[in-house]
Specification:
single chain; 362 residues; mainly beta; Jelly Rolls; 2 domains; eleven-stranded antiparallel β-sheet; 3 helices; 5% helix; 43% strand; globular
């Protein structure tokens, strides 16, 4: 019997990976689903690949929400909730959502040539705070940027936005695994970023021209919330339907940048051995090749990790990473281990707050 041709609709369209953004549907949150009291710094707190930055402009709770646009296929969104207001930003204050992209994933855009591709951004957003918002594309390799505004017109209503950016014939992107292109959803900024003329074409980056002088200050009230999902950035001048990927594919793409090995009580980490009586060793393999040799992200907990061996149990509080590669690493503890050289056992988490992860984020 002849095998019918697979239709072009559905999953076959999805495997084209036209969306440059990983986890744009906000479905993966390896670090957790909610973090509160964020008032400084820039970090990946909850939803994978989404980096939140704030400098003295309010205090925030960031979470993965189930509030999504109806009938669009989304199950999760990224939510920001202002918990301490700041209605008067100082010059250097800001709050934004940021995303970074490897240069080797962007070579087909032909940036820096006469054939440079345009880029089209589409996303769904919702807020009680109506008004003007700024989205900025930033070429990190060549210090060039391009900002445009969008408007949230109706309070507490999901709205789809589309923005197109002309291709940039100046400044090729590096062909490597470092940050080349990044973007910012600006949610508030001081005069250091708003006092110039908004940079609405590709130009050398000038801080004062990055954010519209009309941009809202989402931090001006503790009633303010902001949601986003369905973020898609693609080559061309037309926004296509959001590219949904299977959960496992999306997770593995996120694990290139951050891999949560275990979290919680009684989770097996690895077989471990005593290299000496006071030195514990174990190997951990990664499920995908990581972007770069990772750092360890581990919660230090008193007796948080248990070595189960034939003649009993030993406990340690933390680990150090040793000689990481892109596919595996060794973990060691040379300060608390106490056993018999050559003896092996299973290493488990021993506390609800214990976790072990590996970080290779841009």
């Amino acid at each position: 019997m002849a095998i019918s041709k697979i239709p072009s609709a559905g999953f076959q369209d999805n495997v084209k990976f036209r969306n440059i953004i990983i986890n744009g549907d906000m479905s993966i949150a390896q670090r957790g689903t909610s973090v509160s009291s964020i008032s400084s710094g820039a970090a990946y707190n909850t939803i994978d690949r989404m980096r939140f930055g704030v400098n003295s402009l309010g205090t925030w709770t960031q979470s993965q929400s189930t509030d999504v646009p109806t009938g669009q296929g989304f199950a999760k969104s990224f939510k920001l909730d202002c918990t301490t207001a700041d209605a008067s930003p100082s010059a250097g204050d800001y709050v934004f959502l940021n995303y970074s992209i490897e240069g080797q994933d962007l070579q087909y855009l032909k940036k820096g040539t006469a054939n440079a591709e345009s880029l089209t951004l589409s996303f769904w957003t919702k807020s009680n705070k109506t008004g003007t918002y700024t989205f900025e594309l930033d070429d990190n390799d060549n210090s060039r940027s391009f900002s445009q505004t969008y408007t949230i017109s109706s309070a507490n209503t999901w709205e789809k936005k589309t923005i197109t950016f002309a291709g940039d014939t100046t400044g090729a992107l590096d062909n490597n695994n470092a940050t080349s292109l990044r973007f910012y959803f600006w949610l508030g900024a001081g005069s250091n970023y708003t006092s110039g003329t908004l940079q609405t074409s590709w130009q050398s980056t000038t801080d004062a021209n990055r954010v519209s002088s009309s941009n809202v200050n989402l931090a001006d009230s503790t009633s303010n919330e902001w949601y986003i999902t369905g973020v898609q950035l693609e080559a061309g001048t037309t926004a296509s339907d959001f590219e949904f990927l299977p959960y496992d594919v999306n997770l593995r793409r996120c694990q290139r940048y951050y891999f949560l090995k275990v979290s919680g009580t009684a989770q097996a980490i690895s077989v471990a051995t005593y290299y000496t009586g006071s030195s514990m060793r174990m190997s951990v393999s990664f499920p995908v090749t990581m972007r770069s040799a990772p750092s360890i992200d581990v919660e230090t907990v008193t007796n948080g990790y248990q070595m189960n061996r034939n003649s009993g149990q030993d406990y340690v509080n933390t680990f150090d990473i040793n000689a990481p590669s892109l596919v595996e690493t060794q973990l060691i503890n040379d300060t608390q281990a106490s056993g018999t050289a050559g003896q092996a056992g299973t290493l488990l988490t021993n506390s609800s707050s214990s976790f072990l992860a590996f970080n290779s984020e841009l």
